[in-house]
User: Fold these one by one.
Assistant:
Number 1:
Amino acid sequence: MSDAPVLISIEGLSKAYRRGAQQIPVLLDIALQVRAGDFVALMGPSGSGKSTLLNLIAGIDQPTSGRIVIGGVDIATLSEGQLADWRAAHVGFIFQFYNLMPVLTALENVELPLLLTGLSARQRRAHAEAALAMVRLQDRMDHYPNELSGGQQQRVAIARALVSDPSLIVADEPTGDLDRTTGAEVLDLLEQLNRELGKTIVMVTHDPKAAARARRLIHLEKGVLVPDEAATALNERPCSS
């Protein structure tokens, strides 16, 4: 992994939100590098800025200052339209509450990101079927979300994240709404995607057992990255979401 190219390079990254006339700082002068093929877990107490950092890396939000270079592109300089195109081409999203469309089948939900591409309907279906087979749900492709268990819905969400073959997968508390056994199955799948397909994964979690599945653990405290030696000590205490 140490000789893999750097996929994400963050320098001087800060984020503040405006509340009336007041600026509320969330992230302060973040510097971080993530290599291609890494599996990173972001941990920290509630309000530490971990979800904000994930959203910035994913191009969902834009920084107040600083650089976020992903695959050679400084996404902090992109317009909203450019960011939307960049996300569609390069990022797969996995959320805590699945974000599936209830009126669409599993297959149709997985196809959704491909509607922004130039693929034909036949090609989109073939890609979606392949993604569902990868998460072992090929026998559930015509089922609606309410006909699936929580774990199956999350696997559909993972298939949707994979279907466009993104260079980066971002996961926000992907096991937070699942029981321990089902959550472990989802983490097994993420590990497999990282190990066998070389997918780069950045995951926010409050669960130390989930974080232990990652190759690298990063802590945030009050909007600041905790140095590795301090993070080791923090691992020994519980961390709330």
Number 2:
Amino acid sequence: MKWSEISIHTTQEAVEPISNILHEAGASGVVIEDQMDLLKDRESVYGEIYHLDPQDYPSEGVIVKAYLPMNSFLAETVEGITDSIEGLTEYGINVGSKQLTTSEVHEEDWATAWKKYYHPVKISEKFTIVPTWEEYEPVHSDELIIELDPGMAFGTGTHPTTVLCIQALERTVNKGDRVIDIGTGSGVLSIASALLGASPVQAMDLDPVAVESARQNTVLNKVDDKISVFQNDLLNGIYDQADVIVANILAEVIVKFTDDAFRLVRDGGWFITSGIILNKKSEVKDALEKAGFTIAETLVMEDWVAFLARKNA
């Protein structure tokens, strides 16, 4: 089979929404080439990146790549992707040059070449993300492993917004806590919650493709007995309170349901929000405080922010 590589030159701010657009268009995963990756200091002990070639990265901004089968509908699909990216500007998202290019890739090349980007990555004090095809032995006895296959999931769980959420979950989730994960995507945050001892965990997403991906990943990580995955629009129709609610989605969406989150978080519980670009920080903080939450901690990584908001007892 022949595939078309869809390559979009954009900004850090637009990586998450553009990735979502590509997934909705039929891509099973995305490759992110960020020029800032060349400047990061990394500990090679975890083997997360072996060699980075500057020629593989843009001189500025971010390249988001996805792969779609070459068929009679490809032109219409690409046109739809272009229109959806253009529409992001209506939400105040800086999409940069949004230059989109396509190129033909043979399946035998694509099927293995993209894996060079993914290796085990220690993303927090306890958690390491491991691609399913990699051999990995835990470095510490209390290390928690999350296995993901980017071929069936939404990314690899190593984007700053996901990392911030997992770090926040480590600070807040206790054994036996009830957790709600809104916009679960790959299910990685629900899996992390379950591995920390949470049960039950509700993982929900509006996208049926995400729901199926999350279900597969919960089985892969042997926590499907603790996690229920289903299609849902934010917190609509949810009535049982939770100890922790986590949402790694756009700031523009978070501010729409802060009141619902406050209603559903138990007294003394937590609402963890990420997916927030720095210039949206104040907007989300104001919405959380207006709903009644107290901001207990603010986590920042690169251009992204996560809030640990508490409902005081």
